[in-house]
Structure formats: C-alpha cells, structure tokens
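With this grant's support, we have settled on a layout for protein records. A representative record follows, to show the layout.
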Amino acid sequence: MKTPDSPIFSILLVDDEPAWLRSLSRTLQSLGGYNNLLKCSDSREVLSLLEQHDIGVILLDLTMPHCSGEEILHQINDNYPEVPVVIISGLNQLETAVRCMRQGAYDYFVKTDEEERLLDGVRRAVQMAALKRENANLHRNFLSNKLNQPDCFAHLVTRSTAMLTVFRYLEAVASSSQPLLILGESGVGKELIAQAVHNLCQATGDLVAVNVAGLDDNTFADTLFGHKRGAFTGAEHERGGMIEKAAHGTLLLDEIGDLSHACQIKLLRLLQEAEYYPLGSDSPQQVKARIIFATHQNLEEKVANGDFRRDLYFRISAHQVKIPPLRQRREDIPLLIDHFLVQAAKDQSKPKPTPPPQLATLLASYCFPGNIRELRGMIFNAVSLHNGGVLSMASFNDRITPSQQSFLTKPSENPFLCMEELPTLNEASELLVTAALERVEGNQTQAARLLGIAQPSLSKRLKRRKHAEKEKP
C-alpha cells in the first residue's frame, strides 16, 4: 500500500554510478517516503524497463556510457511522452539544462543540490504524473457507461444513472494518493461509498471509520495518533491510534464538518507533513493509510462563515464526490424495498414478506429526509409487525401522513413568483392534480393523500375533467 506521498506507479532511477543510485534511493525512501523505486545502471535497459513495468517518473543522469542521457531523453519523449523525466546530472551547465528542457525534460537538477530541493522537484513530477493519469482515467471512464470493477460496488443497491456516474468517478480517482471528500445528506450511505473506494484500492489493510463529531482537542489527538505509556494521567499502557490501525488500508474520518478549530489545525499538520506524533512520543510516525473524509455539512458555507479553515478545506477536497439523496434516485426504491425485506426477514428469522403493489408508489411520493437509513428502518419495522401473507401498509401509512408528504414535496419557493402570467385558480388546481397523479403513477388514493383531499373528491374532479374533455368540439 502506498504512503500518502508515494504513487501507485514506480519511479525509475537511471545512473551508471551504483553508489549514487544507492544514495539517491535512500534519500527518496527515508525523506520522501517513496518505496516503489526501480534502479538502472545501464542506460540501454531503460526502454525495456518501461515496457515491463508501470513507470510514472524517471530520474535520469546525462553522462553515461553506451547511450547518453540526452539520447535516452529523446527516446522516452518519442515513445512515452506522458512520463515526466527529471534530469539529475553532475554537470552544472546552464546551456545543457536549457537544451534538456527544450527536448522535453520536466526539470533539471545538479547532484550537488540540497536534498530538500531535489525532493521538491521529485514531488512535483510525481504529482504531475498522477494528475495526468487521473485525467486520462476520468476521460476514459466518462466515455464509457460500464464499470471496470463492478464487484467493488456490489454492496451498493442501485440502478440510478446518477450513482453510476459517481461510481465511474471513484474508479478514476481510487488509485490517487490524494484525500477524497464524500459529501451527502445523512443516511445516503457515505460509509458504503468509502468501502467501495477501499475495495477499488485493493488495500491489504483494513477500512477504519472514526466519527470525529464532538471530539475535543485531546480526545481527537489520542483517538487518531494514540499515546505512549505515561503520556498523561491514566495512560498505563501504550495504545496505537486509528491511523496506525488503518496502516496499508483506509482511514475514514466521518462528520469532518463538525471538527473544532483546534482539531482542524492538528488535521492540517497531519496532511501537510504526512506524519504524526503519538502523545508522549518524540519520534514521528509516517502515515501509511489512504484518508477519506465525509460530511453532511456544506463546507463551502462553513468556510465562508469562518467555521472551517479554508486551507484545510482545499487539502481534504483534492477529490470530491457528492452522493445524491434518495429523493433524486426514486428508481432505486423498488430495489431497496426488496433488498431490505430480505435483510429484515433474515434478521428476524421470518419468511420474506410479499410487498403490496402500492408500497413502491407510496414510498416514491415521500422525500425521505433520513434517506436510505430511514427507508431501512421503515422496512424493518413493518417486517417486525408482519404475521404472514402480504406485507401490511399500515405502518407506512402511519409514518407518511399527507401533511408530511405535502411539506416534503413542495418547492422551497413559491413557483408562481417567477411566472410572467399567473394561472387561474381552476387552472392551478388542474395542474396540481395532474402533477400528483404523475408522481404516484396514477394511483388515485396516493394522489389524494398528496393533495390533502379525500379520494372521492379527487374521483369526482377527474370525472368532471373527463366529461369536459368529451364535450370539447
């Protein structure tokens, strides 16, 4: 599993001096956290290594026997133009540096440059290579309607095109080392989405989820970073934090929008440095987990209000995905009803009930403020009251009252305000009736509930409409 700074692809080091190769690889490993290094001391082998391995960045010396660095640079640009080449040469010559950059080198350094300056150049090249790959993946995935790894999403019950778009995006960015921010209302399944990303990464470690809402400064640090024995009163034993438990896996920090300012600062340092200190320790530990964040809050609004750090927001939202609420994916409701009926029956050791035909229509008329979690609770409650035969509608009708339906389905603003010409009361009522019937697929009982009238009243109105249409010339 890659570290937060270590890409999924390999970095190829090319130099005819074995001592320099060893020194450079130690620097990249110890200070940069790069463990996926390939070393080559014969420049004639570079192209064959590019064919055999997934190489994203090349660090290339210029002065080598058999085939010079400039010749290799030309060959790489001809055959692998997407791979950034960083020249690291013993020659401190401006003319040579300019010539290499014109030939397509990404950057140029001298072997005597400071280690940190060299590392910064390598990091930039790695980020550029990763960005190019992500853009290529996004382009490829969005041109296709199929998923490359559908099994990773098998635990998510959906046929929504909006969710398929989300899945394709996740496939494109799953291999990135950058943080992922999952947005969505409570109950939409943000943790299930994090599980899908974890599956896509093929991580060897676990998915560890932490709800950080309400954690104070000390509790947050102890929960994430752990502590050494004697770090504070009561710390009788050493304890690893959640970051350590998620090593080589995925760490999900849920409800990140509720984090206090003091905790936000700690988190920002963690992301900037890719290392942390357990409480009571002077030795830094490297982060070895992919970090995913989730929240139901509007973080842009919180940033504007000063409740969330702007720099932290930009750090955690390198990749961002928003999960649509259930009311925007009503086509999933029949699938979810069946899925939760199976779960509830198994959980309660009962035969799976038969759902009444009108159940899906009724639930489609409701906006589910609690989203999928609320629907699951409804189904489990109904199954617990079920004694055989067709599942009763009673518990659903009790839960979804006409007042709740009208409140949840009406627009947040008066739709007539934007109209140049207002309809008459009779025209408006006819439009409402038509909309209600379309929403519940023609079920008059459910349409009457939406309109807040009795079903016989709706029936009379429809008969009058039919009679009026017949009398039209």
Observations:
- Residues 265 and 357 are 53 Å apart (CA to CA).
